[in-house]
Amino acid sequence: MARNILRAGLDLRIWNRTRDKAAGLTELGAYVAADPADAVLGADLIVTMLFDADSIADVVGPLTTGLSGDAIWVQMSTVGVDGCDRLAELAEGLGLTFVDAPVLGSKKQAEDGALTVLASGPDRVRDRCAGLFDAVGGRTLWHEDYLPLWKEIEKLGKPLSTHDSASASVPSFGDRMDTHVSGHILSHPFEAMAAMAGLIWFGVFEQCPKLKVIHVEGDGGWTPYWLQRMEQHWDFSGNSEHEYLTRRPTEYFRSNVCVAFRGDEPTMKAAVELVGDDNFTWDSDYPHPDGTYPWGVEAMLKQPIPKESKRKLFWDNAARVFNLA
C-alpha cells in the first residue's frame, strides 16, 4: 500500500513498529519516521493499518501534538463495529475527522493497487481522500465515475444485476478464506449485501430514482437481517454522514431493489413474512453445477408461502423490474 501511495506521487511519512521493514521505501521517496508522532507531523491524511483496535489505539492515542488542525484519520484496518466506535471516539478527542475504510483483497491485490476500499465517513472529505483510495485500490463504492453508467442503465429501463466476482483480479469477500468451498460460502451473499448497502447509502438511488437492481445467485434469506441492520444505523445517526439521503434505507430498497431466491431456501417463508413479497424473485442458477435446475421450479411450488406470493416471485416481480409487463 505504501509503495502504491508513493507511485501515485503522494508525499509519505511512514512509521512501522519494525523499522527495518519500512527502510526499503526510502528509495521510492518515503520519509521513515522515528516514531508515530514524527510520522503524523503536519500530515493532511493519517493512515493506520495495524492488527486490531487495541494496537491502533495504543499508537494513535498518545498523538496529542503535531496534528494538523484539519487532519483526516483514515483507519484502514478491519476492527469490527465496537472497534470502529471506539476509534471514532478517540478521533473526536484528538480533533481528527474520522473515516473508517477497511480494505478487502489478497496480498497480490494490495501490491497491484487493486484492493476494494469500503469507506465510510463525512461526505465533505470525499475529495480529500480520493487520491489515497485511488492509489491503493480500485474505485470505491461511492466513486462518482460510475454515475454515468447508472444513469444510462436507468434510461434503458432495464435492471442492473449484481453477482460476486469470479475474476482473479477483482477482490471478493471469499478471498478471506483458504479453500474454494469456504470462500464460496462467504462471497456471494456478502458481496450482494455490500453492493446493496453501497448503492443505498452512497446515494445512487437518490440520484437515479428509476434504476432497478437485482441481486442474483446469492440467496435471499439474509435480506430481513440486512434491512434491520441498516435501519438500526439510520435510527442511531440518520443521514448525518450521508447528507444527500432523503429516505430511510428500507424505502430505497422497496423502490429500487429486488433479491433473487433459490427455490429450496427454507428461509423464504420467514423473509416473505418479514419483508413482504414485492421485492423478491427466483433464479435457478443455471447452468452452474451447484444450481437448482431443473428441480428448482418444483421446490418453489412446494414453498409454504401463499399462492399469490409464488406468482410474484415466479413472474410478476421480474416482469415489473425488467419492464416486460
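the 2nd protein, sequnce then structure:
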Amino acid sequence: MHVVPRLAKLPSTRDSMIIRAAFLKSFDIALQPANLLDRFHRAGALVTWWEEQSDEFKTIAARGFDELVDGWIDTIRDIIEDAESKKEDRDAIREHKLVRRLLPEYLREVQAAADAVTAIEEEKAAFERGPDDGGADESSADEGDGEAEARNYAKELKDELKELNNSIAGQLDRIKTLKGGRKEKESIIAAEVSGKDAAALRAELASPPTRHGSWCWISPAKPSCAC
C-alpha cells in the first residue's frame, strides 16, 4: 500500500482513516527489522503521533493542502505580531515545521541573537554584583532566612553619584554666581565694575570644589586644603 500517493489524493478522497491504517501498516513494516519495539509498542507510538497530527489531516481532507498551509501561516503571524504573546508561544513557533523548513538561516540568526542577549545579561548581572570585596558583605545577610539580599552595584554607583552631586550643589551655585554678569551682585565682574578688589573672588573661583558641602578656599599664601 503506497501511503504517499494516497496522502496526495486526500483532498479528493477524504479517506483519512484509511490513510491512518496505511501509516500503521507501513510504519510497522519499516520498524520491525530494527527489533527495538514489539508490534504493540510500535502501533502505540504511531497512534500517539497520529493523534497529535489528526487535526491537520482532517483539514487536508476537508479543505486541501493550501488551506492547511494558510492556517499555519496565520497562526505564526498572529503570535509574532501579538505584542502580548507569551515567550513560550514564540519559542514554540520557532520549532514549527513550516518555519524550520523554510527559514533555517533565520532560526540560526535568532539563536545567535538569543545567545548574545544571554551573554550580555550575564555581564550585567556580574557588574551589578560589583567587584569582589572578599566577602565583606556576607555579614549583611539576613540571619532569619539565611539569604543575603542581592547586591546591585549599578544602583550603588548611581546613589553615590547622586550624593556627590548633592554635596557640591552649593559650590556649583557659587561658581555660577562668581561667573555671573554685572547684575549678579557677588560676581567678579560686578566687583570689578564697582571698583572693588576682586582678587579674593578670583582665588575662590580657582580653588577646587570638595565633596563636604562647603566651599574650599585656598589662599595664595597657604596653598593647601584640609578637606
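The two ends are 96 Å apart (CA to CA). The chain is about 65% helix and 0% strand.
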